[in-house]
Structure formats: C-alpha cells, structure tokens
C-alpha cells in the first residue's frame, strides 16, 4: 500500500529506490520527502538499506515550500 492505494513494485526495492522512482514520475525533488513504513518513520540514513516487503504500508509525504 502506498498512500492508501495498492501498488505493485519489484521484489528487493528499497525505500530509496521507491522515492527516486516516484520523484522522477512526478518531476519532484527526492530530497524533500518523508517516508513512513508500517506507522514508523524511516530515517533518511536508512532509506538505502530498508527493503520494502510484501504487505508493507508506505506513506510518502512531499514537503512543499512557499512564501
């Protein structure tokens, strides 16, 4: 589940890979996101080593700046 919607991804996909993929699809900067996996925040330092497993619930929040 990604932001409440079912989404299939390849086995072995890490949080960092998912962020890069989604950011490229949306044309957004991947540095401005926060990831929650199964109700726990995934620190940016762990994005590259955290593999998304079958049944995980992922919430991705894009930070938006303004003035």
UniProtKB/TrEMBL annotation:
Q: Which Pfam families match?
A: ThiS (PF02597)
Q: Which InterPro entries does the UniProt entry name for this protein?
A: Beta-grasp_dom_sf (IPR012675), Mopterin_synth/thiamin_S_b (IPR016155), Thi_S (IPR010035), ThiS/MoaD-like (IPR003749)
Protein name per the record: Thiamine biosynthesis protein ThiS
């Amino acid at each position: 589940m990604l932001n409440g919607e079912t989404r299939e991804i390849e086995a072995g996909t890490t949080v960092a890979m998912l962020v890069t993929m989604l950011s490229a699809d949306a044309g957004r900067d991947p540095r401005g996101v926060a990831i929650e996996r199964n109700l726990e925040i995934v620190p940016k330092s762990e994005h590259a080593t955290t593999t998304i497993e079958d049944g995980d619930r992922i919430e991705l929040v894009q930070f938006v700046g303004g003035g």
